[in-house]
Structures are given as structure tokens and as C-alpha cells.
Amino acid sequence: MQVKVDERESRVILPEVVDRTNVNELDNALQSLYDKGSSTIKIDCGNLEMLDSAGLGSFVLYEKRLKERGGGLKVINVDSAYIKHLFNAIELNRVIEIE
Amino acid sequence: MLDLFTKRRPKSISLKNLLFLPVLFALFALALVGYLSFRNGQQAVNDVAHQLRLEINSRIEEHLLTFLDIPVRINQANAEAFRRGVPDVHDQKALEHYFWEQIQLFDSVTSVNFGNRAGGLANAGREGVGGPLYVIATEDYASGAFHKFATDSYGNRGQLLESIPSFDARERSWYVDALKKERDVWSDVYILFTGQDMCLTVSRPVYDTDDMFLGVTAVNIFLSHLGDFLEGIKVGERGQSFIMERSGLMIASSTSEDPISSLDVNPQHRIEARESAISLTRLAAEALHQEFGDYQAITSSHHFEFQENREQQLGLVRPFQNPYGLEWLIVTVIPEKDFMAQVYRHNQITIGLILLTMLVFIALGIFITRRIIHPISELNLAAGALARGEWDQTIYYHGWIEEINALSHSFNHMMGKLQQMVAGLNQEIADRKEVEERLTESEKRFRAISELALDAIIMINAQGKVVYWSPSAERIFGHTSGDVVGRDVHRLLMPEKYRQSYERGFKTFKETGEGVVTNRVLELVAKHKSGKEIPIEIGVSPIKIKGEYWASAIIRDITERKAMEEKIEYQYEFHRIVATISSSFINFSKTWIDEAITSALYQIAIFFQVDRSYLFQFSSDAKTISMTHEWCAEGIEPQKERIQKEPVENQPWMMQEIQREEYTVIPDVDALDYEGERKEFQRQDIKSLICIPVKKDGEVFGFLGLDSVKTQKDWPAEEITLFKIIGEIISSIMARHQIEDELTESEARYRTLVSNIPGIVFRCDMCKDWAMRFMSEEIEELTEYPSSYFINNRVRSYMSLIHPQDQEEVFRVIQESISKKRAYTVQYRVLSASGKIRWVLENGQGVFDSQGDLEYIDGVIMEITERKKVEEKLAQRTQELEQELDKAKQVHQQMLPKSLPTIKGLSTASHYQPAKKLGGDFYDMIKVGHKLVFYLSDVSGHGLDGSMLSVFVKHTIKGYLSFYGVEHTPSSILQYLVHQFKEENYLDSYFICIFVGVLDLDTMELTYAGLGFQDTPFVKMGDGREDKLATKGLFVSSTLPVEMYRFQEKTITLTPGTTIFFNTDGLTEQGVGGSYYMERLPEVFYSKAHLSPHLISQAVVEDFRQFNKNTLQGKDDITFLVLQVEPDEMERYSFELASDFQELRSMQDKVLEHVEGSLDLDSVHSLRTCLTELVVNAMEHGNSMDPLKKVYLEMIMTEHYIQVVVEDEGDGFDWWEKIDRPLDLEGDRERGRGIAMTKLFCDHLLYNQKGNQATMFLINREEEE
Fold first, then answer.
1. In this complex, do B1176 and A81 lie within 8 Å of one another by their Cβ atoms?
2. Long-range pairs for B1221-1225 at CB < 8 Å and ≥24 separation?
3. In Å, what is the CA distance from B156 to each residue of B139, B152, B528, B1215?
4. Is residue B497 classed exposed, middle or buried when 0-12, 13-18 and 19+ CB atoms within 10 A define those classes?
5. Looking at this predicted complex, what is its ipTM?
6. So what's the pLDDT on residue B746?
7. N-term to C-term CA, chain B
8. For the whole model, what pTM was predicted?
9. Sign, CA torsion B945/B946/B948/B949
10. Are B1168 and A53 an interchain contact pair (Cβ–Cβ within 8 Å)?
């Protein structure tokens, strides 16, 4: 249940659950890549099965920051039906690129 | 058609064969074409061969003519030359040379010679064709030795080649024949003595100019020259020609065969054509010989054919003759094959091609046929199988033939339909069988039942004749079955007065099988055998028999029930009258009291079925009596006008009775002993009557009476009692109103006074600046100006006195009324001379001339300043009252239970929405020991008094419960309530409707009762059964005597999962556009009753809002309670968390542990998301992460839903503003997305008013569907 960072690909790999209890890990991961100057950060949701509004808040915040650099987040590997349903329901693709 | 078709059906052929027919035809055509082309080819070739043979024979003939002509010409030339002596025939040597030169000139000539009369010979010739030349001479030019010499190139004698010792020319046949015949003579064909060739000689006698015979000259020709010629003619590839004599001996042949036998054969002889070694020659000769028998018979050219080695040979024989008697036959033979070879080859190719085409045709035919036939035969098989009853046929064909695809698709489709149909048919057959079986059985049972049944069972046919009459029918109607079968049922049973309508109805029934009596239960009157009418209950059902409608009826004698019903109805009616009378007195204001009493009299008269009802009142000095109120039935003469201030002495006994007795009954007026009264009653045509006194404070001030004019009437004790009750009610009301009347009497007097004061009358000319034509002098009181000032606006206009703020309105009202030619009323202020402002009311109307033009306005002005002041005061008071009401509203709401008690195994929810003004709904739920007492009440009046009444209900019940402990029942509570209400002596206009339930929490037995509670609570039992909790009883009112109350208790045992919905009439009687919410409520409740009470409440509220034009505000208070016994399978988990995210994590794990296995993954995620959001919100926003504050979580799981309640210890929040916010994805971390996320994944999210408790639901959709 750890958020992992792939610096080479500028990618954050999410664990199964991202919610208020571990959202700071996600924040740290995104921040570290942000500090290294990445303008596009991939969020790998291959393992992700559950995401709460805190996690979503983190997405939205970093999307905003990266956009100011001319980049943005890129959500990849959305696999879980539930997460797909969530992203569809809130129309996340209007704001963040989802591969 | 079908018959014709089957009869004439031709012998059928299979489709396969049919499809093959065109192929066969094509093959036949091909073969025919091939054959014809072959035949034509052959014919053409034969023609060519024919021509060729003719050509060849002609050429041969020509050659022969030339060939045979040359020696004749040589002989002629020589004979002529010898005759002239050049050369001299006597000079052997010259002659020899002459011949030698001639030989060189004529190739085809073998030798030329001359034999003189001495038998000598001069000769020159050549050795065979193209051979060396030679000369022959006899010694001394006379018979004797004969020498043959080779010659040199000059013709000089060379080497002696041969010598013959004796030769005499004169002995040679050529010499002899020529001498004898003295002309050209042809020898027979002969073989040279050298044997090397055959030869033919032409000889001619030679004469000198004196015609002296000199000798004979002759020319010999070798026939091998002919052979060479024939050989040179190309007769096809293998054809040949030969020439033979008519004797059959060969002359020459184009083959290499010699026409003479070889030198070895001795003697050498000529060969016959029929013996030729060349088979073709031989066979041709043979064929000719066979055909003609003798060669002599051949007289003209003749074509013939024969076979050699099975090959057809074409021959032509042509006779040849020359003028000197040579008769030969030229034969040409050509093997047909030489010409036909190419044709054959072509034919072979053609045949090959045809065969190949045929093969292709056949293959194609087979292929296509199979392609078509296969699916069709499959279809055929399937259809055959279908015919045998194998229904599961399906064709799995999908090929490239569109039609067949469509066909198989159609077949499958048809199959599906057929299967369905067959299944249906099978079912129907099975059903029918079963029905038949059952029919037999039911027939038996029908007999048994109908014979035992208490109800009459009658069946009639389409003509209305009885066909079956059960024993009970005999019992009920008195007719026996034997009497009635075959008789018209309507004549038999229907009373005369109804018969026509029955018969009309029956006519419709006969045609349609439907009528007023069919398919429902009706109550009618029937005729007994004795003629007595009996009430019956009848159900008629049509039976269609042979296209006609018969009818069967089940008839029950309801005489007893009717009587019972009437009794109940009577009692009910009485209750109703009591209630109506009470409420009419409550609701009508004091000024309407007379009407209220008359209305009550009407009700009473109808109820007791009398012709007149009335109220008498004594005068205040009790000396006279007057009829103050009266109601008469139609046709009854009113007495009220007549009986006024009647001296009491006129009816002393009656007056005494009334003062002394509780009631006076005179069943028969004519039998009355007291004359004064009897005469009076008889005068009014009264047959019977009853009177009861009305009292105030124990003193009789009048009496109520009922007269029966038309018939005599017995007054049963029961009716008397009832009438007495009514008397008491009216007494008490009258008593009260008398007091009030006295109070208002002064006011009335005042009003009369006012009404006598006349207003200020005026006539105004609107067209002339509103100048007054006339005005009462009283205007001076109002304006402090004399009226003369205003006439013709002499000093000032009246209009100028109208308050500037009102002028516009006054003008508008008057203009409008004039344009519409209507009267007007307008209120305005007038300024007096001293500056006082006075309110006036002006009534006016236009006066129009005959053309309809306005002439004047006539009107009256009245001062209403005082009234205005009162009105203003009233408005102020109203405002104050409204403020009071608002306070009362708050008080009322505070009085309602904040939360319903938490009871294990029970869930509850409630809803209360007060009316705009304050409503009178109230509810409470109190747990006392092992019992739960709850009630729902609705009091009259909406306002402070209503609220006060609710306070009364609450405290009375609460007081009762705390005082009387646990032994209470709904009826004891209600009894106490009624008693207390009486004690408190509330106004007549107050009353209470209430439902009380007592639930035993151990046995789950619910006992309930209600007073005046109109709305029957809905119940859905745990097993899904639907029920209602009906109650009956009069409302709580001080106008009703305590004895009248009946407290009917009922009991129901609530099984797990049972849900009850209690509401007051505000909800159900809310109407929008002619429909009432009552029409929708049951469906909403019953469809949601399996969900939690919160959800049910939410559903009803939402549905009501939709129905009620999107508002929850009702005309009356909207109040309901939901009570649910928790279902058995319900699981309940509680958690308590400190405000710490670590706790959240462990709570999540625990919750997920509970739900694992019973929820699908999506629901688990949804639940987890919602839980996380709600708990995080509770920790962060509710408890501000204060670790000392807790979050309480309760989760309930049933098979239908999951309910989670999350409560924090914070101050709540303004959830109503946030709950409908959409999820915001704009860039900020905190945007209150938690609520939006929760709403996204749960089915319902509710907050308590404060906002520190959230309840979310997940509904099992599968279950829902």
C-alpha cells in the first residue's frame, strides 16, 4: 500500500487504495516529480481499486500546477471497473487526460 | 382447389432430375451439333473425293488418248512419207536412221519399224523407258537373220547386241493384220519377247504413189509408260489408279506392281486385277466384279465403295475406248481416310471438346444441383421430421444462395413460432384434458355442492327458462324444482314493479353476455312463492353454450343480514347525525344558529322518518309558547306561522307533561283523552308524536317534537333513547347560544340604528366637471361646507375634497362602472374644511338616456370613518396574532419529540410539515416498561388554540402514563382523554381526532384504537402481506355525551420486517388539480415498505413534493410516522472512532470484513468510498480533528439495503446548501467533494437538521427489480 515513484518515466504508481489515510504519500510523490521539473506526470492506476475525494483533490491540485507549466497529469492503465465508473461519473477526462 | 390439385397431380419428378434436364438438353444439343458438323464435313469430303476421282480418271483418260494417238500419228506420217519415197523404204539404212531420229523425238514410243514385202525389217527403238537406243535390221533387208545393234550418238550401228537367226516380218501379226485390214491396226497387248515389258503395237500398210503395197510400218509402245504416268499422278496419300482390260487383266497401275508376272515365272503371263498382290487393287477389282458380275457390264462411270482393313475406300471406274477398238477400264481408288483424316482429327478434337464441355456441364449441374438440393432436402428432412412431430428442428445453413438462406431463415423462424404454438397447443390440450377430467369431477361436485349449498343456484337458458333449480332455491323461494324448470325465471321471481327493467336487461344480456347484474354481486328484491318480497344477494355469470348466453346465478337470502345491516346502518346514521349536528353547531357562527337548528331538525326528521320536526320555546314569562323552528316534509303544511305566542293554558296537560317528564309520546292522537290537545293535533292532521323538553340549568325553556302526519308511528324505546340524546345535545347548544345571543343583542340594536341613518344623496353631472345637480344637506356634517357650495360647482367642486392619494382610484372606479353600465362602490377619504380626514363609502350608478348616453351619476355617500378605524385596529390585531402564531408554531415544534426513542428491534422515522398558519397535528412515542405507546392526533382549529389542544393531548397522555404505570391499553388512554377533555370544558368548536397504539415489545403485539381518526394506517407485514389498521369511533368533543363513546380495540401481531405507516389527513387530503394524494400514497408506501423507515419517509416526501407542485407545504399539517420491526436477517454493527485517520483505516478493514462475501465488488467499493468520505467529513469538519471528540458509526445490513449512520460531536453544518452541489474538478484541493462523492456512490444521503448526523443508504438493486 505504498505510492511508488518511477523517476525515469516521470510516473507515479498508485497502490490499491488511495484515500484520506494515505493521500499524503501521493502528494509527496507528485511533489517530488514536480520539484524535479517534470511538466507531465503519469499516474499509473494499474493497481488502483479505490479512490476517495482526498485522492481526487490531489489529482486536481497537481493538474492545476502542471498546467501552469504547460503540461499536466496523464492518468494511465485504468483497469478497475470501479475506477472507470468513478472517472466516467465525474467526467474526470474533461479536466485530466486519461489514456 | 386442393382436391383438384391432388387428383390431377402429375407424376412428380425429383428436383434433382428436374434440374438435370437442362443439362441433358444442352448435352443433346451439343451432340447433335457435333454430329451434324461431322456429317457435313464427311459430306464435303466425300464430294471432294468424288470430284477428285472424276478429275483423276479424266486426266488418265486424256493421257491415254494422247498416248495412244501418238503411234497412230507416227504411222500416218511415216506411211505418207514412204509413199512419197522420202525416205525411201527400200533403203534399209536410211530408214533405220530415220526411225532412230523419230525415237529420239517421242519418248513414249518404244520402237518404230518397217517390214517390206520381203519380210525384211528396219527398226529403231529404245531399251525400256529412258533406256539406250538401238537399231535392228535383217540381213539384206529380207527375212532371215536379225541383228540388233547399239547406236552411237549419231545413230550409226555400234556393237551387235543380239542376233536372231530367222525372222520374217511378213509372219508377224502386226504385218499380217495391217495387210489384211489395209488400215491402222492395234495389236492385242502382248509381252515383249524379252519379257521386260508389255507392249502394244499400231501397224499400217504402206503404199507407193501408185498404191502399190510396199510393206507395213509399225510403232510399238511400252505400257510401262502408262504405269509411270499413273505413278506420277498423286492420288491422295494412299490412293491409286489402275487400268485394266475388260477381261480383268491389268494394263498399268500407279503402284509399283508389274502388270506381268516376274521373269522367273514360266511362262510369263499377265496378271489379273483380281489377283493383284496389292490388296487395294485386288479388293477394288473384286468389288467391281462383285457389283457387276462381269467387267463387260460396266458401261459408264461408276462410283463404288468397299472396305479394306475396315477402312472405307472410295472407287471410281470409268470405261475407256479409242476408235481402233481398245476397250479398257480406268479405276481410281482413294481411301476415305485420306480425306477424312483431317476431318476425323477435327472431329476427334470436336468430340473431345464436346465431351469436356459435357463433363464440365455435368459437374456444374451436379454441383449446383447439390447446392440447391442439399439445403432443400435438409429442409425437406426437417419438414418431414416436423410432420412426424419432432419439433426441435433447426437448419444450420448459410450458403451463398440468397433465396435459400432466406428460406432456411424463414424455416427456422417458422419453426420457432411453430414450437411456441405447439407448446401452446400441447399445453392447451393438456389443459383441456385436465379441464375435461375436472369437468366430470366438478359436475359431480357441482351437484353435491349445489344440493348442499345454502345459497340458491339457478341456471337459465337463453330464453330465460329455468334449466336448473337447486334444493336451496326450493327452500328460499318456495317453488320446487319440478314446478319451475322450463318456466320463465323473471315472471317467477321478479316482483311486478321491477319486471320491465329486468326484461330489458335480459335482452342486452342475451346479445352480449353482459348486463347490469353480471359479474358482480348485487342486492335485489325477489318474490317468494307466497308473494312476499325477500331481499336477495345475487351474482350472475354468463355461460356461453352453443353460441347462446345462458346464465347461472347464485342467490343468497339476505333477509337476516339486511335486517342486521339496517340496524347497524341505523346506529351509524345516528352517530353521524350526532356528529353532524355537533359540528354544524360548532362551525356555524352565532348568526347562523337558526339555520343550524333547522338543519338539525331536518337531519332528525329524516333519521326518525317523521313528517315534521320542530322546536318550541316558552316566552320569558312562561305564559305563552311559540314554534321557533320547524322542518316539514313535502306536502306537509307548516305550522310555524300559526303557532306563535300560544297561551300555555290551551294545552294544560301537554305543558305539564313537558315540565315533568323526560319525554311525552302520543302514539295515537285519536285515542288521546285530553280534548284541547287532541283537537289541536287533529287540526294539524297529526297521527302520532313525541316531544322532549330542552333545558338550561335544569329549567325547561322549550321542547323538541316530532310529528308523524301520514302514518301512525310506534315509538320504540330505542328511538326514544336516541331522541333524548339529541335533545340533550341541542339543549346544551341552545343554552350556550342563548347566553351569547343576549350578549350580542345590544350590538344588534346598534346595527339597526345605524341602518336607519340615511346617507348623503347626490346627483352629479360628470360631463360638466363633476358638478353636483343635487346633494343632501347632510354633506355639511361631513365636509363642513353647505351643500349649496357644490351645486353646479358654485363655490367649489366636491371632487376637490377627495384626498389627493385617492382621487385617481375614485375616477378609475367610476369611469369603469359607467363604461360597463354597472353600479360602483368606492371608499375614499374626504378632507373637511377644518382639515379633518374622513373615510366615506360611495355607492353610485350612471343614469342613461334612451340612446344609452350618460346623463348623470346618482349616488349615496356614507361616512365610514369609525368602521375604518375598527378595521385598522383589526389589521393590527391580526398582525399581532400572526406574531403570536409564529411563537405558537415554535412552541408546537418544540413540543414535538426531538427524536423518537431508540428501541432495539424497531426502526422509526417521522415527518412533520406544519401548515402555513399553525396546524393541530401532534404525535409522540413513549416507552413505558416493555411497552411502546405512540399516538398521532389532529385537533380542530389551526392556531394557538389548536396548539393548546395539542399541549393538552400531550400532557394528558403523558400524565396518564406516568400516573397509571404500565397497565394501559389504547382504550383506557382514550377513555381518560375523553374524560379529561370534558372536565376541562373546552369550547364546543374544539375536538380531537386521535390514533393510539400500544406495542408490547416482548410479544410484538400491537393494540390500537382511534377516535375520529379518519386515515387508516397502512401495514406491510414481514411476509409482504398488505393490511390496514382501521379504527372506528366518534371524535373527542365536549358536545358529545360520554356514554356515546365506544372504544373498539384491535390487535395485530407484528412479524419481523413489518412496516406501518401512520398519517393524519393533511397528507392524504392534499389536493392538486382535482386529485388527492390519497390516490398515490398506498403505492409509494407498499413499494418501498421493505426499505428502512428513513428511506420510506424520504420516498414519500419526495413523491409528495412531486405531486404537490414541488413544495412540501400543505394546506393542513403534513404529518406521518413510520414504524418498522426490524427484519430477522438484519445485521447491525456499531463503531466508535476517535478523530484520527489511523482509526479510519482500521474501521474500513473491519467494515469490509463484515460485508465481504455478501456484496459484489462494486458495492464494496461504493460502500468504502461513502464510508471514508462521511467519516473523514465527520472528523475534519464535524470534530475539527479534535482527538477527544468521537465519530459514531452504525451500519445496518438487510437483504434489501445497507444503511450507515455517521454521527459526530461537532456543531453540524449547513448541509442543505452543500448537498446539491455538483462535484467540482477545478484546481483546488478542498472543495467539499466528499458529499458529492458520497452522493455519487450511494442511493440516498440524508442529514439530520443539525447536520452532525449523516445517513446513507445502498439499495440492493437486484432485489429492487
1. no
2. B1223/A90, B1225/A60, B1225/A90, B1225/A91, B1225/A92, B1225/A94, B1225/A95
3. 16, 6, 180, 164
4. exposed
5. 0.89
6. 44
7. 55
8. 0.40
9. positive
10. no
